[in-house]
Design goal:
308 residues, alpha/beta, UDP-N-acetylmuramoyl-L-alanine:D-glutamate ligase, four-stranded mixed β-sheet, 14 strands, 40% helix, 24% strand
Length: 308
């Protein structure tokens, strides 16, 4: 019997988001990191979520630990590195929208090595979730994620992978090679349309889904923003409409989708129903500022769906 629903592996970050008040520019603290966000989103849907990473034994690391404790995310496998640093990022605003700046080089999470993996926790999970960012932050982390995926498959744990492409972290050719090798070992691929177009060189969503199915995964959920989500399996392909809202801030919407999708898929095993649920959760997450604060609970998502 598996004791964990979703185990995420990757890097959490401390967030500082720009706000302007009375002519002053302020930075409000919050939380980020794609797989950490996904774990929190899943926990808010009632899933038993856990995370594996490393944090600096510093003030920011302790803030993130406190977040996971409040949200019910199991952090018993997290490594605290004495003298290590917790990664930080800043959200500013330019003429074309968000401007992201990172201070993550050499972070505690980027120093994770394959030998530090919690193999028993991976085997105890129903789903292992990782992302392109999980592997981009260092060569050791790329190797650790591959080792985690191999152990998951040997243990009967499903693997979910978000292709999250960050070209600030690595060149496109290496990103493409590593990400597609990981997707080929995964059960569920969660690409975003813009990233997938860069990674595959394809334009049409149906061709992108066919490409990822061809790598060997059995479910693709291709998020397309206001155009909805294309869900594909070897037997069926369908576009699940987006839920229109007056968005305030889309930071973390993709991570919310991932967490809600996995949590709902684990309830009934239907990826099409899971995508409809996750589209609603992602829409609600855009109604406030920041990556974590506006993430909805299951009760909020179900109320939103009933009212639609």
């Amino acid at each position: 019997m598996k004791s964990i629903d979703i185990l995420a592996i990757g890097e959490p970050l401390m967030e500082f988001a720009e706000v302007r008040r009375g002519g002053e520019r302020l930075y409000l603290p919050g939380f980020g990191g794609d797989v950490s966000n996904t774990a929190v989103a899943a926990a808010r849907q009632g899933a038993k979520a856990a995370i594996f990473t490393a944090l600096g034994d510093d003030a920011f690391g302790r803030e993130i630990l406190a977040l996971w404790d409040r949200e019910g995310v199991d952090r018993s496998s997290v490594i605290l590195r004495a003298g290590g640093r917790t990664g930080v990022y800043f959200i500013g605003y330019g003429e074309e929208g968000h401007v992201f700046s990172y201070a993550r080089a050499g972070s505690a999470a980027s120093l994770v090595r394959p030998g530090e993996l919690p193999l028993d926790r991976i085997a105890a999970a129903r789903v292992l979730h990782a992302s392109g960012i999980s592997q981009a932050i260092s060569g050791d982390c790329a190797d650790a994620v591959f080792a985690a995926i191999r152990h998951a498959k040997a243990s009967g744990t499903a693997v979910s992978y978000d292709t999250n492409l960050r070209l600030r972290l690595w060149p496109l050719d290496r990103a493409r090679a590593v990400i597609h090798a990981a997707v080929a070992l995964s059960d569920i691929a969660l690409p975003g349309l813009d990233d997938a177009r860069q990674l595959t060189g394809l334009d049409r969503p149906e061709d992108i889904c066919a490409f990822y199915l061809g790598l060997g995964c059995r479910i693709v959920a291709l998020t397309m923003g206001k155009a909805g989500t294309m869900v594909a399996t070897p037997e069926r392909r369908e576009v699940i409409p987006a839920r229109p809202v007056e968005a305030v801030d889309a930071t973390g919407a993709g991570d919310t989708f991932d967490g809600a999708f996995l949590a709902e898929w684990l309830v009934h095993g239907d990826p099409f129903r899971a995508a409809a649920y996750a589209n609603a959760a992602a829409a609600l997450s855009t109604l406030g500022q920041g990556g974590v604060g506006p993430m909805p609970t299951r009760q909020a998502v179900e109320s939103f769906l009933r009212a639609a």
